From TrEMBL:
Statement: the UniProt record of this protein carries the keyword Nucleotide-binding: no
InterPro entries named among the record's database cross-references: GntR_C, TF_FadR/GntR_C, Tscrpt_reg_HTH_GntR, WH-like_DNA-bd_sf, WH_DNA-bd_sf
Molecular function terms from GO: DNA binding; DNA-binding transcription factor activity
Signal peptide coordinates: none
Gene3D superfamilies noted in UniProt: GntR ligand-binding domain-like (1.20.120.530), Winged helix-like DNA-binding domain superfamily/Winged helix DNA-binding domain (1.10.10.10)
Organism: Amaricoccus macauensis
Keyword annotations from UniProtKB, A to Z: DNA-binding, Transcription, Transcription regulation
Protein's name in the database: DNA-binding FadR family transcriptional regulator
Domain HTH gntR-type: 3-71
């Protein structure tokens, strides 16, 4: 099959970015320069550039030349989020696999937090749980604080990729997560499990922290499955 002109241009520009000829923040050649270089019209150039913008490698600003994008984990997550949500909505197996991956990641985050936390870290976690207890009758706030508690544990590792992954997982799973913490009677259980995780982290018991986190997430996953069983 004959390669589209825009695909050929995209590939060559991608090579220029990948080999470091143009680095983050540097301007790409103008549309006119690219048209002359490749001997093509403006539509092919724009299609190639829009393709590179879609995958987050360049930034296109109205009235100015495109430039190589600054590396950003957050931008990478944004680029794949729509595709990931589509996959999860149409593939129950992928949804289960992602929840399993989240449990494995957060189990390790709890283990690291138990080894690396500072007194300030513990203070932030305790404050979050105090706030969550106060929000027990406010479902939206309660859920928000639930996410912040998990993100704070990830941040203790000091690795921005961990926090970015946790943010991404919460974003991708948001539309597929039954609000179990909002079901009457389960808010207290969620809080109790959070306190078990925190107590293990504070005690620097890495294995207990990992186990408490795994039990917490597996309990939520089990309840999710039960809520989606066919009713006869």
């Amino acid at each position: 099959m004959r390669q589209k002109l825009s695909d050929k241009i995209r590939h060559e520009l991608l090579e220029v970015i990948d080999n470091g000829t143009l680095g983050p923040g540097e301007l790409l050649p103008s549309e006119r320069e690219l048209m002359e270089r490749f001997g093509v019209g403006r539509p092919a150039i724009r299609e190639a550039m829009q393709s590179l913008e879609t995958i987050g490698l360049i930034e296109i600003r109205h009235g100015g030349r495109a430039r190589v994008a600054e590396p950003s984990i957050g931008r990478m997550v944004d680029q794949v989020s729509a595709t990931m949500k589509h996959l999860l909505a149409n593939s129950p197996a992928s949804l289960e696999n992602l929840k399993e991956a989240r449990a494995a990641l957060e189990r390790e985050m709890a283990r690291i937090a138990a080894r690396k936390h500072s007194s300030a870290d513990l203070g932030r976690l305790r404050e979050l749980l105090d706030d969550q207890a106060d929000a027990i009758s406010e479902p939206a706030r309660f859920r928000s604080l639930d996410g912040r508690f998990h993100r704070e544990i990830a941040s203790i590792a000091g690795n921005p990729i961990f926090t970015a992954l946790i943010d991404a997982l919460f974003l991708w799973l948001a539309d597929f997560h039954v609000d179990l913490v909002s079901v009457p009677g389960l808010e207290a259980l969620t809080l109790a499990e959070h306190h078990q995780i925190l107590d293990a982290i504070a005690s620097r018991d890495a294995e207990a922290a990992a186990t408490a986190m795994a039990d917490h997430l597996l309990r939520a996953n089990d309840l999710y499955r039960q809520s989606h069983l066919p009713r006869g």
